[in-house]
Amino acid sequence: MDSPDLIQLIQHTQGGDRSAFSSLYDKFSPALYGVILKIVRKDIHVAEDCLQDTFVKIWKHIATYDAHKGSIFTWMLTIARNTALDKLSSLNAKQIHSMDSAVGIEETKYNTSLNTDTIGLSDIMNKLDAEHQSLINMAYYQGMTQSEIADQLGMPLGTIKTKIRAAMLMLRNLMT
What we know:
- There is one protein chain.
- Helices cover 74% and strands 0% of the residues.
- The chain has helices at 4-14, 18-39, 44-61, 72-94, 99-109, 121-126, 130-141, 146-153, 157-175.
């Protein structure tokens, strides 16, 4: 459950208050950026574009957010994840160079010190147990569906859904 201050911030944003939206951005952009950056494989420029696209989508669709269905962070994280996966898919479809040359370029061009450790996301993830870390990595960083995770781990889909939900709740609690 979101805190009363956060609920008020969401309500103001849903009412069109740009200052409240700016506060939401300040609160959640570092964590969302870290997730996006991992999905797009540390391509800083693509991650920045995805973060911007994510917050444009959040602004446009904030009225559809329903607190009864989940936390604002989970809702925003889903938008960020989907935006990054869509962007990654689009880039992969347009890729002209061979995979070998693309990997070589990425390793030299984007070898920077910026990573999720600089925003503390890795520290927060490390507080989760290994199973929850693994599930979040598969679902949000590797872009696997819950069905794919269930198949890979040999578990029922319902169990995977429950475990991912529990992992997300723990992550959310660690972030607030």
